[in-house]
């Protein structure tokens, strides 16, 4: 636990310091791993697709071509299946939400 020094003239410092201490000790953010070699993805891995830094789709990996040049994903929310080519300018990120059984613990 971090010791917090407070000053009676500025009580708001105590609140801010405690909030920062709590935020740094609790891991509530999802983990995202950029995947440049799609062969490393397994069927069912949750993924996000980005184009020019903008999220364009989320879903689960559903197959990778033998040469790693094509990736099938099943998009979330019933949006269907999508084929991505390595030359499409899409970056793929493996996304493990907080609480996922596959998420490594700190």
Report what the structure shows:
- This protein is mainly beta and 106 residues long.
- The chain has a domain at 31-96: SH3 type barrels (Roll).
- 13% of the residues lie in helices and 38% in strands.
- The protein is built from one helix and six strands, in the order αββββββ.
- Strands 1-6-2-3-4-5 form a six-stranded antiparallel beta sheet, with no helix packed on it.
- The longest helix has 14 residues, at 12-25.
- The two termini are 17 Å apart.
- The model is unreliable at 1-29 (pLDDT under 50).
Largest sheet: 6 strands, antiparallel
Distance between the termini: 17 Å
| CATH architecture call of one domain | Roll
Instruction: Give the C-level CATH assignment of one domain.
Output: Mainly Beta
User: What is the string of helix and strand elements?
Assistant: HEEEEEE
Task: Fill in the CATH topology of one domain.
Answer: SH3 type barrels
Whole-number radius of gyration? 20 Å
How many individual β-strands?
A: 6
């Amino acid at each position: 636990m971090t010791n917090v020094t407070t000053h009676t003239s500025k009580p708001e410092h105590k609140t801010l310091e405690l909030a920062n201490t709590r935020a740094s000790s609790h891991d509530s953010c999802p983990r995202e791993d950029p995947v440049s070699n799609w062969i490393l993805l397994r069927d069912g891995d949750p993924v996000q697709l980005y184009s020019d830094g903008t999220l364009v789709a989320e879903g689960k990996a559903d197959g990778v071509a033998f040469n790693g040049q094509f990736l099938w994903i099943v998009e979330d929310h019933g949006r269907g299946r999508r084929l991505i080519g390595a030359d499409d300018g899409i970056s793929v990120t493996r996304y493990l939400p907080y609480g996922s059984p596959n998420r490594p613990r700190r």
